[in-house]
Amino acid sequence: MSASETPSPSTRLIVVSGASGAGKTSVAHRLLEDQRFARAVTATTREPRGTEQDGVDYHFLTAGDFHKRLIAEGFLAPAEVYGHWYGTPRENVEGILASGRHCILVIDVQGVEDLKESEVDALYVFVDAPSQEELERRLKSRGDDAPEKISARLRAAREELEKKDLFDRVLVNDDIKRAARELAGWVGLELA
Ligand code: 5GP
Fold first, then answer.
1. What integer pLDDT is reported at residue 147 of this predicted model?
2. pTM, two decimal places
3. Does 77 sit in the ligand 1 pocket, CB within 6 Å?
4. Which of 1, 93, 94, 104 falls 20 to 30 Å from 39 in CA-CA distance?
């Protein structure tokens, strides 16, 4: 077994959040190239976008099924975001940690407040863009949303920035690979 496959003795839930457009998903994807990390797939009632796949990007559920499972299984951080429901099945997180991998949960700031209120033990990481101008540029260049959605995300991003203090660490995403290496270092791992 190579060093990169050796499971770390104590695995952690790493909650990755931050302003929309700061690149939290990109940093998470970079970490997930290393098998010592796995992502908790969350559930949503929104429609799949582009190449998104059920069970990989999200568990895409109808509103009825979402609420049935929420009650039956217990979801972490259930929340309505931009008119759709999101939540993380608990067993997804527990299964990953039990398998000896660090569990990455990418979630909005509202979800982080919820997790902290429920005293969920995790390393809470706020991903930030290097500057406000860069954040706005990234949001506008996404191209997958209508202008009114971009304005809504910009407004949300400003509010999210005010919540930085909730987090254990702030990760400046100036370069995805560098940022992922820094985050891995916080759980004692060196990325290739
Ligand atoms: P999108 O629809 O753009 O994929 O996600 C919208 C927001 O919902 C993102 O900020 C995403 O991180 C967040 N999100 C994803 N899963 C969950 C979850 O289980 N709970 C909460 N509260 N937010 C989530």
1. 80
2. 0.84
3. yes
4. 1
